[in-house]
Design brief:
Blueprint: E1 2-15, E2 18-23, E3 26-32, H1 39-51, E4 55-56, E5 62-64, H2 66-69, E6 72-77, H3 99-115, E7 120-122, E8 129-144
Parallel strand pairs: 3-6, 6-7
Antiparallel strand pairs: 1-2, 1-3, 1-8, 4-5
Helix pairs in contact: 1-3
Length: 149
C-alpha cells in the first residue's frame, strides 16, 4: 500500500462538476493499493499516516500529528501510485490491486481513520476526479507499507 500525503490548508474532490469530498486544515492522502496488500499493510499505513508529526507546534516545529492539530483528512484512491516506470516510457500497473480489492481496502482505510475520531472525507472510487488543494508548506510525504523508500 502506498500513499502520497500532503499537508493542506484545504482540499476538495470534484466528480462531474459536483464536490464529493472537501476538508479544511489537515491532510490530503492519495492512496494506492497493491495486489499483495493485506490487513497488516493497511493498519501500518493508516497508523503511520495518523501519527505523522508534520503539523507545527507553538514553536513552529513539525511536532504534532493530525489528531494533535485537530485536522481533517481527505482520502482519494489512486491506483497510478503503483505505476512501474523502470522499463520504457509507459507505466505498467500490474502491481495494482483489482478494483474489488482496491475499493475494499480503500474503504477499510477510511473506516480506520474515522474510527480514530478524525473527520475523513473521500473521493469517488474509479471516477474521473478533479482534486483541488492548497498545500501548506509545502509539505509532502511518501509512505509505502513495504518500506521500499
Amino acid at each position: 500500500m502506498r500513499a502520497v500525503i500532503q499537508r493542506v490548508l484545504s482540499a476538495s474532490v470534484v466528480v462531474d462538476g459536483q464536490t464529493v469530498g472537501e476538508v479544511g486544515n489537515g491532510l490530503l492522502v492519495l492512496l494506492g493499493v497493491e495486489k499483495e496488500d493485506n490487513d497488516q499493510d493497511l493498519k501500518y499505513l493508516a497508523e503511520k499516516t495518523i501519527g505523522l508529526r508534520i503539523f507545527n507546534d507553538v514553536d513552529g516545529k513539525m511536532n504534532r500529528s493530525i489528531e494533535d492539530a485537530g485536522g481533517e483528512m481527505l482520502v482519494v484512491s489512486q491506483f497510478t501510485l503503483l505505476g512501474d516506470t523502470r522499463k520504457g516510457k509507459r507505466p505498467s500497473f500490474i502491481k495494482a490491486a483489482d478494483p474489488e480489492t482496491g475499493n475494499r481496502m480503500y474503504t477499510e482505510f477510511v473506516d480506520f481513520v474515522r474510527d480514530k475520531g478524525i473527520k475523513c472525507e473521500t473521493g469517488q472510487f474509479q471516477a474521473d476526479m478533479k482534486v483541488h488543494l492548497i498545500n501548506d508548506g509545502p509539505v509532502t510525504i511518501l509512505l509505502d507499507s513495504r518500506r521500499t523508500f
